[in-house]
Design a protein that fits this description.
Blueprint (H helix, E strand, L loop, with lengths): L1 H8 L3 H31 L12 E6 L14 H13 L23 E2 L5 E2 L49 H5 L2 E3 L5 H5 L2 H6 L3 E9 L5 E8 L6 H12 L2 E2 L2 E3 L2 E3 L1 E11 L1
Antiparallel strand pairs: 1-10, 2-3, 4-7, 5-6, 5-10, 8-9
Organism: Nannocystis pusilla
Keywords: Membrane, Transmembrane, Transmembrane helix
InterPro entries: TonB_C
């Protein structure tokens, strides 16, 4: 009986090994579960609502530009100078009384000798000391071949046909438009004003149409009133993409300028 007890109470190495493995596995699983619960509480992932779709409306308004001011009157100094020059013109010599000569020469001379003995051609209305070939009624000190009413010493300039004239109304300029897209709504919605402020405003852009129909000299005339430079940049880049048919004046392409207003509204 005692031997039977000792036989069953003897330690089994395989049984001890299985118990050790089970202990290690259970401890590992318990520790992993604790670590997972701790990490999940730290992450604290919350569910958010999906973003809503926003719509943006852009309205363009055409305002006629004011007519150019009249040219300024000529300076008074030039008129005074012309009056002084006119006063300095000596009066014509009073013709001497013609006396019938006692003897009539065979040939009537058609040349008059001056005091120095030089021969000069008589010009009707001429002034003593004038230049041969001058214009009757000319002014002392004038330039030969000068324009009547021109400024003394002035330089003649020729106006280039491609030179830009006064700004034209936007409605007239848009009549020759070939490609004129509006500011992109998705870009405006992604700006600070489109995501947070959402207050409307107006942006004015000055531009010119070159002789080849492309926009040039694009400048910001009026900024977006709510201090968002990105909105100004989008409007300016939009005008740079516009294309027009060349404006013809006298059969020649001419550069014209205008100004456009963008009314920006956010939903």
């Amino acid at each position: 009986m005692f031997e039977h007890y000792l036989t069953y109470q003897k330690s089994d190495p395989r049984r001890q090994r299985r118990i050790a493995i089970a202990s290690v596995v259970s401890g590992t699983l318990t520790f992993s579960g604790i670590i997972f619960v701790w990490a999940a509480n730290k992450m604290n992932i919350t569910k958010v609502d999906p973003p809503t779709v926003q719509f943006l409306m852009v309205q363009m308004s055409a305002e006629e530009a004011a007519p150019p001011p009249p040219p300024p009157p000529p300076p008074a100094a030039a008129e005074t100078q012309e009056e002084e020059e006119k006063e300095e013109i000596p009066e014509e010599d009073v013709p001497e009384e013609i006396v019938q000569p006692k003897e009539t020469p065979d040939k009537v001379p058609d040349v008059k000798k001056s005091a120095g003995g030089a021969k000069t051609n008589a010009v009707p209305g001429g002034v003593p000391g004038g230049v041969p070939g001058g214009v009757p009624g000319g002014v002392l000190g004038g330039v030969l071949g000068g324009q009547l009413g021109g400024q003394l010493g002035g330089v003649a300039t020729k106006r280039d046909a491609t030179q830009a004239t006064a700004p034209k109304p936007i409605a007239v300029v848009m009549g020759n438009a070939i490609y004129k897209p509006d500011p992109e709504a998705n870009k405006l919605a992604a700006t600070k004003a489109g995501m947070f402020d959402k207050r409307p405003g107006t942006v004015s852009v000055f531009f010119c149409v070159d002789v080849d129909g492309k926009t040039a000299d694009v400048k910001l005339k009026k900024k977006f009133p709510h201090n968002d430079p990105k909105v100004d940049e989008i409007c300016r880049d939009t005008v740079k993409k516009w294309r027009f048919k060349p404006f013809m004046v006298g059969g020649k392409a001419t550069k014209v300028c205008s100004e456009v207003d963008f009314n920006i509204k956010f939903n």
